[in-house]
Amino acid sequence: MTQSFIHIESPNYLRLQDLPTPPDWPGIFGNDNRLALEIGCGVGDFMLKTALDQPDTNFVAIDFYNKGCDKTCRRIDRHGVTNVRVVRDEARAFVTERIPKGSLSAIYINCPDPWPKKRHRKRRLVNQEFIEFLLDYMVPGADFFFATDFDDYGIDVANALPGIAALENQFGSDLYRHEFPGYHLSKYMRKFMAEGKQIYFMHYKVK
């Protein structure tokens, strides 16, 4: 997909070509704080609020879209946030090449592209196979968060998660919830909710 290129000048933006495989994340952040990943940071409003809430966590926020990375950087720069780094890359490649196995304390995936047409749904990022792939990169006790506004995407992921033995549902017997107190809403979530849509929230932990 062709994108108009925006040159991003930010101390919190990491150019993919400058990152070793894998990067020295403690060296990049200047500390040994736990590491978390947001896949699909959009315009950065969720990441900003979450990073401000958790100053002792280092966040890597990735997005495939250059424009979203630029907006995320501008947002966190304006607020003087220092515990976020932004990278433009595709999710699976980035995790495979840039995240050490057994290093993530949390993964956040909010409102990924739903590929709504039935013939395109195989392109959806999040399914049982992808979540099982992510498990190798998470520490015991790590949190996995997923949210979508798209009904059948939410139900598909909600039905897949209980089949992953290494994960424990933090919502008890509820496969998903439409309200998640304390979990920040992104710009897209607020937009969808204003249109009368419900958000499907899921929260699991690695056993």
Automatic annotation (TrEMBL):
<keyword id="KW-0808">Transferase</keyword>
<feature type="binding site">
    <location>
        <position position="113"/>
    </location>
    <ligand>
        <name>S-adenosyl-L-methionine</name>
    </ligand>
</feature>
<protein>
    <recommendedName>
        <fullName>tRNA (guanine-N(7)-)-methyltransferase</fullName>
        <ecNumber>2.1.1.33</ecNumber>
    </recommendedName>
</protein>
<keyword id="KW-0949">S-adenosyl-L-methionine</keyword>
<keyword id="KW-0819">tRNA processing</keyword>
<dbReference type="GO" id="GO:0008176">
    <property type="term" value="F:tRNA (guanine(46)-N7)-methyltransferase activity"/>
</dbReference>
<feature type="binding site">
    <location>
        <position position="149"/>
    </location>
    <ligand>
        <name>substrate</name>
    </ligand>
</feature>
<keyword id="KW-0489">Methyltransferase</keyword>
<comment type="similarity">
    <text>Belongs to the class I-like SAM-binding methyltransferase superfamily. TrmB family.</text>
</comment>
<feature type="binding site">
    <location>
        <position position="38"/>
    </location>
    <ligand>
        <name>S-adenosyl-L-methionine</name>
    </ligand>
</feature>
<feature type="binding site">
    <location>
        <position position="63"/>
    </location>
    <ligand>
        <name>S-adenosyl-L-methionine</name>
    </ligand>
</feature>
<dbReference type="InterPro" id="IPR003358">
    <property type="entry name" value="tRNA_(Gua-N-7)_MeTrfase_Trmb"/>
</dbReference>
<feature type="binding site">
    <location>
        <position position="90"/>
    </location>
    <ligand>
        <name>S-adenosyl-L-methionine</name>
    </ligand>
</feature>
<dbReference type="InterPro" id="IPR029063">
    <property type="entry name" value="SAM-dependent_MTases_sf"/>
</dbReference>
<dbReference type="Pfam" id="PF02390">
    <property type="entry name" value="Methyltransf_4"/>
</dbReference>
<comment type="pathway">
    <text>tRNA modification; N(7)-methylguanine-tRNA biosynthesis.</text>
</comment>
<dbReference type="InterPro" id="IPR055361">
    <property type="entry name" value="tRNA_methyltr_TrmB_bact"/>
</dbReference>
<feature type="binding site">
    <location>
        <position position="117"/>
    </location>
    <ligand>
        <name>substrate</name>
    </ligand>
</feature>
<comment type="function">
    <text>Catalyzes the formation of N(7)-methylguanine at position 46 (m7G46) in tRNA.</text>
</comment>
